[in-house]
Amino acid sequence: MTSSPPDARTKLVLVALTIGAFAIGLDTFVIIGALDVISRDLTISTGAAGWIISIYAICYAVFAPLNAWMFKTMSRRNVQILSVSIFIVGNLVCAIAPNFIILAAGRVVSAYGAAMFTPAATALATELLLPARKGIALSLIFGGMTVSQVAGVPATSWIADAIGWRYAFVLVVIAGLLALLIFTPMMSGIRANAPEHGKGLTSKEFPKIIYGVLSVTLFVSSPNSSSIPTSASSSPVLCLPGSRCSRPRSLLMDSEP
Questions:
Q1: How far is it, in rounded angstroms, from Cα 183 to Cα 147?
Q2: What is each CA distance from 59 to 9, 53, 195, in whole angstroms?
Q3: With 90 as the cut, is the pLDDT of residue 211 above it?
Q4: How confident is the model at residue 5 (pLDDT cuts 50, 70, 90)?
Q5: Which class for 51: exposed (0-12), middle (13-18), buried (19 or more C-beta within 10 A)?
Q6: What is the Cα–Cα distance from 145 to 233, expressed in whole angstroms?
Q7: Which residue of 10, 110, 135, 157 has the lowest C-beta tally within 10 Å?
Q8: Count of H-run helices and E-run strands, the chain
Q9: In the predicted model, is pLDDT for residue 229 greater than 50?
Q10: Helix (H, G, I), strand (E, B) or coil at 238
Q11: pLDDT higher than 70, residue 2
Q12: Residues near 194 by Cβ (< 8 Å), separated by ≥ 6?
């Protein structure tokens, strides 16, 4: 017994989700190839610029379980539209950021949107297709993230060197807008009511599992939380439990005149 193929509307929604996943993956690594350019433009050290990557990763890890709990009663389609919109705003802030603080704030906002998008996108994709085709839906979304690493990261690195690192964030914004423009009109055919959770986490009580996830995340990231730099003269300090704090030798060399 073969399953029927998805209709045109469902295909377009899956395309939009794949493009959105591509934009999320692109945003995750967009900083890597532009660290030197960003450090020169904002007059901070390369080590300080590297904190932009850590800030995004930590915020994503914290926001993902929180968003899953906060927006569990909201319909999938509304979560998708809201998450992509927040993601676009965050990257626009990064594109026009005049200093490190504003750039870091933009990364926090974009991480919030990304952490909201990914779990809801995978859930929505599996809801749109029959059980026999759920694997295809998931492969499209995670394939979008993989392609962003293979093709998108070199592209953003080239853009950062050729015309400026701000245009690398503009590329991420364009990808997000494209997903939003395809996604929004197609969502009229998706049910607006909140997904059914059976007898699972339906109450507003904060789940204990999220406490555990957040505790682990904050424990891993807390040793370095007090060393986020704001200028070229300050660089990350490694403070391991039970040992003295010290600056990495490579960063000390970078900070020397």
A1: 20
A2: 33, 10, 26
A3: no
A4: low
A5: buried
A6: 35
A7: 135
A8: 10, 0
A9: no
A10: strand
A11: no
A12: 72, 73, 74, 75
Tally the residues of the chain.
257
Distance (Å) of CA 133 to CA 3, 18, 139, 182? 8, 15, 10, 22
Which tokens in the block code for residue 5? 């193929």
pLDDT band at 187 (very low <50, low <70, confident <90, very high): low
Tokens at residue 111, please?
Answer: 């991480």
Dihedral in degrees, nearest 10, Cα atoms 177, 178, 180, 181: 110
What letter represents residue 254's amino acid? D
In angstroms, the Cα distances linking 69 to 63, 121, 171, 189 are 10, 15, 31, 25
Task: State which H helix or E strand residue 173 sits in.
Answer: helix 165-186
Q: Would you give the distance in Å from CA 126 to the centre of its chain?
A: 21
What pLDDT score was predicted for residue 245? 45
Give the end-to-end CA distance of the chain in Å, rounded to a whole number: 72
Q: Say how far apart CA 107 and CA 238 lie, in whole Å.
A: 22
Predicted local distance difference test score (pLDDT) of residue 191: 55
Contact 84, 113 (CB under 8 A): yes
| pLDDT value at 196 more than 90 | no
Nearest to 149 by CA among 6, 8, 23: 23
- pLDDT for res 42: 92
Q: Mean pLDDT throughout 108-119?
A: 92
- Does the pLDDT at position 32 exceed 60? yes
Strand partners, 246: 238
Q: What is the pLDDT of residue 84?
A: 93
Spans of all domains in the chain: 8-192+203-222+232-255
